[in-house]
Prior knowledge:
With 51 residues, this protein is mostly helical. 41% of the residues lie in helices and 0% in strands. The chain is built from one helix and no strands.
Amino acid sequence: MAKQLNLMGNSNVIPTALHLEMQRSYLEYAMSVIVGRALPDVRDGLKPVHR
C-alpha cells in the first residue's frame, strides 16, 4: 500500500465529500444572490437593478 504524505501538517482541513460541499456552497451562493438582487430593499422598496 502506498504511503500517504501529510503535506499540510496540523492544519484545519476537514475532509468532506465533494458533492456535499458543492451542494452546500451553491445553496449559500444562490440565497445570497436572491437576497442581494431579487428581493426589494426594505428602505425604499426598489430592487438593486431599479436604483
